[in-house]
Amino acid sequence: QVQLVESGGGLVQAGGSLTLSCSASGIRFSLSSMGWYRLAPGKQRELVALITKSGSTNYADSVKGRFTISRDDAKNTVYLQMNSLKAEDTARYSCNAGATSSSPSRFWGQGTQVTVSP
Predict the structure, then answer these.
(1) Least CB-packed of 10, 43, 76, 104 within 10 Å?
(2) Which contacts qualify for 11-14: CB closer than 8 Å, 24 or more apart?
């Protein structure tokens, strides 16, 4: 069965950095595109960053230049390096295995909370 486990969230001051990790099992990770999504109260779920099996990336406009998605196929892990964090980045971040730029797959992790204090 597919299992995705996120870690690395927490409380950080505006301007700070965090790195999220998502460890995957039960999938052919090296053949899977991986996405990071976030959901904030009162807002729609947003695709933050996507990385394809070949390593191509794309980002939401709101995080371009601040966030970096990467993957380590040897460790079945995808990362989200978040720099220059803003209060509006506060959300629950979840990874998705098999995501495309137009929609997520049904394979989700439980998420990790990121809270940025002003």
Answers:
(1) 43
(2) 11/115, 11/116, 11/117, 12/85, 12/114, 12/115, 12/116, 12/117, 13/116, 13/117, 14/85, 14/86, 14/87, 14/116, 14/117, 14/118
